Amino acid sequence: MESKSRKVLYIEDQPEMIELVRLTLRRNGCEVYGAMDGAQGLAMMRDLRPDVVLLDLMLPGWDGWQVHKAMQADETLKSLPVILVTARPQGNGHVAGRQPPPAAAYITKPFSLAEIRSKIDAVLTSREQAMATA
C-alpha cells in the first residue's frame, strides 16, 4: 500500500539546512520544499498547501514572527501546523526573547536529524488523526 507523500515547507535562509532536511525527510516519505525568506514562504504556502511548515524565526526581510502573524491573519493558511525553528531559545516560555506564537512544536538549532524527523512525524500524525475524525 503506497502512502501519500507529505509536503513540508521549510522557510530558512541557509540553503544547506534546507537540503539537509530534504535529504533526511525524503526517507520518511516527505517532499521538502524550501523558501529563502518570509515573503517567498508565504507565496509558496498558498501555492503548495503543505502539510506542515518549518519556520525559522531569524530570516531576512520578514522574519518568522511576521510570517506567522501573516499566516494567522489568512483564513487559508491559519490552520497549517507550524514548527518554529530557533537558534536562540530562552526560558520562561519565551523564544528568542519574545512570547512565542501558538505553534505545533519548537525546535532549537542545532537540532538532530532524529529530532526533526520525530517532531514532524508527531505533528503530521496528529493532524491526520484530527482530519480523519472531523
Can you characterise this structure?
This protein is of the alpha/beta class. The chain has a single domain, classed as Rossmann fold. It has a 5-stranded parallel β-sheet, sandwiched between helices. Helix 3 links the parallel strand 3 and strand 4. Helix 2 packs parallel to helix 3. The relative contact order is 0.16. The mean pLDDT is 85.
Topology of this structure?
Layout: E1 6-11, H1 15-26, E2 30-35, H2 38-48, E3 52-56, H3 64-73, E4 82-86, E5 105-108, H4 113-133
Parallel strand pairs: 1-2, 1-3, 3-4, 4-5
Helix pairs in contact: 2-3
Features:
globular, 4 helices, single chain, 5 strands, Rossmann fold, 134 residues, alpha/beta, five-stranded parallel sheet, 40% helix
> Main sheet, how many strands, which sense, barrel?
5 strands, parallel
Structural class: alpha/beta
Contiguous low-pLDDT stretches (5 residues minimum) are none
Give the H and E element order: EHEHEHEEH
- Side by side, the strands of the main sheet go 2-1-3-4-5
- The CATH superfamily appears as Response regulator
Secondary structure: number of strands: 5
Which CATH-level-2 architecture? 3-Layer(aba) Sandwich
Helix content: 40-55%
Mean pLDDT over the residues: 85
Q: What overall form do the CA principal axes indicate?
A: globular
Give a quick precis of the structure:
The protein has helices spanning about 15-25, 40-50, 65-75, 115-134; strands at about 5-10, 30-35, 50-55, 80-85, 105-110. It is an alpha/beta fold and about 130 residues long.
